[in-house]
Write a structure and sequence with these properties.
The complex is a heterodimer of chains A (about 350) and B (about 325).
Chain A (H helix, E strand, L loop, with lengths): L1 H5 L1 E3 L9 H22 L6 H11 L4 H28 L8 H23 L4 H15 L5 H9 L6 H33 L14 E3 H26 L24 H9 L5 H22 L11 H26 L5
Antiparallel strand pairs in A: 1-2
Chain B lengths: L1 H22 L9 E7 L11 H4 L3 E7 L7 E10 L3 E9 L10 E3 L4 E3 L6 E9 L4 H4 L1 H4 L22 E8 L10 E5 L9 E3 L6 E3 L10 E3 L16 E3 L11 E2 L2 E3 L10 E7 L2 E9 L16 E8 L8 E3 L2 E5 L2
Parallel strand pairs in B: 1-3, 1-20
Antiparallel strand pairs in B: 2-3, 2-19, 3-4, 4-17, 5-6, 5-14, 7-8, 7-18, 8-9, 9-10, 11-15, 12-13, 16-17, 18-19, 18-20
Classes of the chains: A mainly alpha (about 350), B mainly beta (about 325).
Chain lengths: ~350, ~325
């Protein structure tokens, strides 16, 4: 306790203008807590899985709120992750000596979609089942390892009880374990190299404050606010649960999630033999760019104006992603025959 | 600082609302029709209550089966709900009023059954999930399963006892004159028997015939009146003591509707036949508390199918695709 009391960290680690990192931790904690609650009622067997989720959602006291918190928290997590990454890019947080902070952060970011992909199948509803089928078909298009990966995930030729069990284990055991490990690594590098200084003033002007109780109180206050807001949203807008999965219903075409609209549009543009360009090469290239950023931009200056070429390239990529997402939205949500 | 805070807050709110637009939207991907029940403070007083104008209508297409194969029909459907009840309104064209259901007719020397049947509409909800009902609908429960020994007995039912359906069955001759729809439920089909069961309680109809089945046994009791369309209710009937009072052309109800009680009497009905069509309102508690009924939770969505019978028996019907019932909150 004394060690905690004596621990001093920068005041701007968590304040009114800089809270995305803390918010991400809060959302992950909320996802873990709500996930544990839901696991008490979940049965990972096709058919029974749907009924157990339906029961937890509509019959268990506060079940709808907990499921709502879980559902809306991951959506918010993606948004906050995006903002966190955007801010880190703008202030040049990837630059020396914090290259590993950036790289471990990108790894954490890449992990989140894996939770969504594995979690989507668990309710065993139409959307989850058929979205998984689409994702497995995209994975199978990866040269050399695609089929092997699909076999590993599915555990057979069909998405059935084995696939559901594997997705469940991945979702509640392996992925959370790995995520915690990556977050610990991320924090280790932050602890070692410190958080990025604001662009406006240098290290010498930054105020330090005690972690306990000042920063912890701020974190708990934010935790409370976010929990209440997500709880209210979950209470008012019940988390969606579609019709039970029917593997024989080949007419069902799942709508892509908002966060993959641009990827989905890429797959739509590059068809047939070129499918791999949209499904692997371009997304893989973007991920590669994120990892390579500390190597690509080694200039000492952090101010965006001094890095205008990089800013321009990032703006072009962002505009392209937004444009593709809008196209995807129009294709799948505006007047589409779903 | 304040400007920064304001911009950050506005951005967060905009992103949150924008995100909600995507995430709370319909997750379904098939072209399934949704009937949205409108929330109201008071229950509709009748078929012409102005509240029905506010409820969004859904025109449900039907396809004919067996005798009606190749024919189409449609029913304009609306729904409203209050804190404790749900009301459906159905309108459909039917040039012929059919409420006879084998009524007796006297020709001056003997009694015989009239040929025509009755008009009906039926709705089937899930009490417990019926496997693939959400996507296949009527095909899962309403048709003869392979290997059923008798088409008539095996016609209607589920595959397992855990799968249960709630069948609302409005009959123009046998239930409507008493002011109800027959409340029944669906369970596992067996080789010898269908899965259709009556809800707990009393109800249905009573056959009006003598032991030798040659003539009616009951007539209208003194001081009582016939129900709508000249139907004799079981509760208004008295045993016939003198058959010589009847003259040629007299008609007497064969299937006398009983006033239902218990769970069987949960669904009340109001109807009107006018201008070549039916308007029918069915209503009951959202949650009757009975195990043989679907407990409606306005937070949830429900799948249901409908069947229309035009002066026909169970075999000849118009069936709808699966419809989603959602509740506007």
């Amino acid at each position: 306790m004394d060690r905690l009391r004596s621990l001093k960290i920068h005041d701007d680690t968590l304040n009114r203008t800089r809270f995305c990192g803390a918010l991400l931790v809060i959302l992950i904690v909320l996802l873990f807590l709500s996930g544990i609650f839901m696991a008490f009622y979940y049965s990972p067997v096709p058919g029974a899985a749907y009924d157990s989720v339906d029961f937890a959602l509509f019959n268990v006291p506060f079940g709808g709120i907990v499921k709502g918190v879980h559902h809306y928290a991951w959506n918010l997590l993606l948004i906050v992750l995006g903002i966190h990454l955007f801010r880190a890019f703008i202030v040049g947080a990837y630059k020396a000596p914090r290259q590993m902070v950036w790289i471990s952060g990108v790894l954490v970011m890449l992990f989140v979609p894996l939770f969504i992909i594995t979690g989507d199948l668990l309710p065993w509803d139409q959307k989850g089942y058929w979205s998984t089928q689409v994702r497995l078909s995209i994975i199978s298009s990866i040269p050399l390892v695609g089929d092997l990966l699909v076999r590993l995930l599915q555990g057979g030729s069909l998405t059935g009880v084995v696939a559901l069990t594997r997705f469940y284990i991945l979702h509640i055991l392996l992925l959370p374990g790995l995520l915690i490990f990556l977050i610990v690594v991320h924090f280790h590098f932050i602890d070692h190299y410190g958080i990025t200084e604001p662009l406006t003033h240098g290290t010498d002007q930054r105020v330090k404050t005690s972690f306990f109780p000042n920063i912890l109180n701020r974190w708990l206050f934010l935790f409370l606010i976010v929990s209440v807001i997500l709880g209210l949203i979950g209470w008012y807008w019940t988390a969606p649960l579609g019709d039970p999965a029917d593997p024989t219903d080949s007419f069902y075409v799942p709508r892509p999630e908002w966060w993959v609209l641009f990827l989905n549009q890429l797959v739509t543009i590059f068809k047939g033999n070129y499918m791999i360009v949209g499904s692997m090469i371009i997304p893989g290239g973007l991920i590669g760019l994120l990892f390579a950023l500390p190597v690509i931009d080694r200039s000492p200056g952090r101010h965006p104006i001094g890095r205008w070429k990089l800013m321009l390239a990032a703006a072009v990529i962002t505009v392209a992603m937004i444009g593709l997402s809008i196209m995807g939205y129009v294709d799948h949500f505006v007047g589409a025959a779903y | 600082m304040r400007t920064k805070l304001f911009i950050s807050f506005s951005l967060c709110v905009a992103l949150l609302i924008g995100g909600l637009q995507f995430t709370t939207g319909e997750a379904t991907g098939v072209s399934k029709e949704t009937l949205t029940a409108l929330r109201t403070k008071s229950v509709p007083a009748g078929l012409d209550d102005p509240i029905w104008e506010k409820a969004k209508r859904l025109i449900v297409p039907f396809e004919g089966k067996e005798r009606f194969a190749g024919k189409k029909a449609s029913v304009t459907t609306k729904a409203v709900y209050t804190d404790d009840s749900i009301h459906f309104l159905f309108k459909w064209k039917d040039p012929t009023l059919s409420v006879t259901k084998g009524a007796w007719k006297y020709d001056g020397s003997k009694w015989s059954h009239q040929k025509s049947n009755e008009d009906r509409i039926a709705l089937l909800f899930e009490i417990n999930r019926i496997n693939n009902y959400a996507t296949k609908g009527c095909a899962i429960v309403c048709h003869v399963p392979q290997g059923a020994s008798s088409a008539k007995d095996g016609k209607f039912g589920t595959s397992t006892a855990a799968e249960m359906g709630d069948l609302w069955h409005w009959k123009a001759a046998r239930s409507d004159p008493a002011g109800f729809a027959d409340d029944t439920w669906l369970t596992k089909i067996s080789e010898k028997k269908g899965g259709r069961k009556s809800d707990k309680g009393k109800g249905g109809d009573q056959k009006n015939m003598t032991d030798d089945k040659s003539k009616p046994k009951f007539m209208l009791a003194p001081g009582k009146t016939f129900a709508k369309h000249g139907i004799l209710l079981a509760s208004h009937a008295v045993e016939i003591t003198n058959y010589s009072d009847f003259k040629a052309g007299d008609v007497l109800t064969y299937r006398m509707p009983k006033t239902p009680s218990g769970s069987r009497g949960d669904i009340k009905a109001v109807s009107r036949y006018a201008d070549g069509g039916w308007t029918v309102m069915l209503y009951r508690k959202l949650d009757t508390g009975n195990e043989d009924d679907t407990a409606f939770n306005p937070r949830k969505k429900y799948n249901f199918t409908m069947a229309l019978f035009d002066d026909s028996g169970d075999e000849d019907s118009y069936d709808s695709e699966v419809i989603t019932l959602s509740f506007k909150r």
